[in-house]
Amino acid sequence: MLLAMAGTLPLLWPGRSAGQGRNPAAGAAMAASAGPAGGTAGITATIVDWARGLRFEDIPAPVIHEARRYLLDAWGCTLAGWNTDKGRLAAGTMQAMAGTAGKAGEAALIGTRSRLPAPIAAFANAELMNALDYDAIPHVPPVTLPALLAVAQREKLSGRALLTGIVVAHEIAVRLSAASSQMISSLIETGETPTVFGINHEGIIAATAGIGAMLGYDAAKMAHAMGLAGYYCPPQGSHNWETLSPKTHVKYTPVGWICQGAVTAALLAGQGFTSNPALFDGPAAFPAFYGWPAWKPEVALAGYGENWRILSVDYKPHAACRFTHSQIDCMQRLVARHGLKAQDMEAIETLGVPFVANPDPLHVRTQEDGQFSTPYVVALAAHGIPLDAHAYDADRLHDPAIRATMARIRWAVHPDATAAKKQDRRSYIARVTVRMKNGQTFVEESLFPKGVGSLPDSRLSDAELEEKFLANATMRLPLAEARRLVAKLWQMDRLADVNEARG
Q: Are 431 and 437 a contacting pair, CB within 8 Å?
């Protein structure tokens, strides 16, 4: 259900005052409520009211289970992030900043026995989580979960509190993104990304709301926390990042800074630090000063408690840019089905959706180059090499056999890409054609990549997610310890203290 602009929204919860708890799954759509600081009804107050009102007991069982899957996948990606320069540098720097606090800090640096002050633990874990580009789509986990986990560990909160915070943060984040992002629309209409755009930078606001929900903030504290998060929100530099070559440790979203800022904003507001308590309202509201050209408040407010967006998360089977996944899938199927060998391939044509995050994809010099190079990831698939946490090891990046295969690859936009994307935004249409040296030709097409959460035939099962987790975790932990951690994460809602899950 799409709601009218704030200020004209009807109050749809009869008999309840602003901020009063209720069952959000009962089917009522969100409505405006009294402003948290005594102001008028508005968008900010509406989001605050929903976030504060959500209770673990009100969340449907499938949503709770998805929050556990979300946590499992993200934790594994964080452990695997130690296999990257980006992750190690961020984590090491944060450990050094902590100094003696690293021995008795507030929150875990995942993959170590160190505990750091919550804001810098959040920074380090976020950078580790996103380093391999293995985290779930949309890229909400690395801009929310490290902040939530750091505060939950700091305050020794229950697993139920953490899972509730995850749901709150994700539901808000994806709506804010959908209400503001022009990236997919621009790709459909022009084949290019907008000049100014960010990828989930506004997740800092959602993460802060999730922390406020975990800590039981009243309406005023929650609104001020969100206002501070907006104040700390980094600029939209994703298009600038796209144009760089070679790719650097700086990626499309400063996930570490966002999570550190979310923790800082929430804790400051908890101590009485004030900000703009009506972040999304008024002529100088966040959408205006942040430069969202087509802000859609009705999208930001639609379907809370009815359409649980966490149920449609895409978990990645490949550690690479999602825009390349259908092409990887096609090549992997060709190799498996026909027993093809890369050295016997004369030429490869791979077609996909229009997206160029690496302007020089044949020159793979860094881990980040590889993650966004279509010829590199397709060449790995042609050689039967899985796109996992080892895909960007130095010996792979500089393997002459891989480079020779890359030189035989031609890549372009699929002729039906725009039409397919207009019809279904989940589509990442692809076609891979392989011409062998013996004259044989093999073709494989795909409309959707593996791992689309809203498609039953594509969705990754619990067993597949657990297998991915163990492969990632055992890069850092012994297998027995990784299995114990799996058990704790699947049982997160039974933990009295989230710190019982370690690793």
A: no
Amino acid symbol at 472: N
The torsion angles phi and psi of 52, rounded to 5 degrees, stand at -70, -30
DSSP letter assigned to residue 37:
T
Structure tokens at 111: 């993959």
What does the alpha-carbon distance between residue 88 and residue 80 come to, in Å, rounded to a whole number?
A: 10
Looking up residue 365, the CATH number of its domain turns out to be 3.30.1330.120
Residue type present at position 453: G
Say what the pLDDT of residue 317 is. Answer: 98
pLDDT for the residue numbered 244: 81
Residue 303 and residue 418 share a domain: no
Q: Is 50 helix (H, G, I), strand (E, B) or coil?
A: helix
Threshold 0.85, pTM exceeds? yes
What type of residue sits at position 231?
Y
- Indicate the DSSP class of residue 33: B
The reported pLDDT for the residue numbered 207 is 98
Tokens of 24: 């959000």
The position carrying tokens 């606001």 is: 205
- What is the model's pLDDT at position 425? 86
288 and 345 inside one domain:
no
- Residue 340, domain extent: 322-446
Q: What is the spatial distance between Cα 358 and Cα 360, in angstroms, rounded to a whole number? A: 6
On whether both 151 and 277 belong to a single domain, the answer is yes
Distance in angstroms (rounded) separating the CA atoms of residues 351 and 363:
19
The DSSP result for 168-218, as a single string, is: HHHHHHHHHHHHH--HHHHHHHHSS--SS--SSTTHHHHHHHHHHHHHT--
Residue ending a domain, among 446, 473, 496, is 446
Q: What is the mean pLDDT of each run of 10 residues along the chain (503 residues)?
A: 33 30 33 36 92 97 98 98 97 89 78 96 98 96 98 98 98 94 70 73 97 98 97 86 85 95 98 96 89 89 96 97 97 98 98 89 94 97 97 95 98 93 90 98 97 96 98 97 98 98 91
Within-domain flag for 255: yes
The amino acid at residue 360 is D
How many distinct structural domains can be found in the chain?
Answer: 2
pLDDT at position 45:
96
Is the domain of 89 the same as that of 216?
Answer: yes
One domain for residues 35 and 61: yes
* Alpha helices in 384-478, H assignment, sequence order: 394-397, 400-406, 417-423, 462-473
**pLDDT at site 491:** 97
Domain final position from 273, 290, 312 = 312
Same domain, 112 and 90: yes
